Please model this.
Amino acid sequence: MVALSVRKSLTYVTLAIGVVVIGHEWVEGLQSIATFLGLVSAGIAIALKDPLTNLAAWAFIVWRRPFDVGDRIEIAKHRGDVIDVHLFQFTLNEIGVWVDADQSTGRIIHIPNQLIFTEPVANYDKGFRYIWNEVPVLVTYESNWQKGEGDSDGDRVQTCRASDAEAERDLLAASQQF
Model:
């Protein structure tokens, strides 16, 4: 038991002497406190690169508002509705990947804030309120395309006439803003 105590004490004394000797060498090598603090801060910045970038991106999201909670965005192959913004990540309610339309898949995706600095962000809700879409119509050789063209033209004109003027005004406003 005494040998164990002596060995433990000897280990602590050796460790203390080692810290003093190495610490003395470091202090002699770092003649000024500014050099020491510069090296420490550079080490911390390298070690904490991702968290610091996420914090900077969070500040960008808060002040510049590339998107808000409730906006539908696309970033880095992920599309969805923003449901939360935190210090290190924002959360999307995913749409469209497993379903054929822009409906929620039920998956929640947590995306690091730093991606807004490196990936393009498409915001469906800022700028222009409309998303252009096509309505595919299958016409075969056996189809009566003349009858179909007449039917669809009448429906399309009645449906779109009311919103065309409003869409044109919004497009003009968005083009002046952006």
User: Anything to note?
Assistant: Strands lie at 72-75, 78-85, 89-95, 104-112, 121-123. The first helix runs from residue 2 to 29.
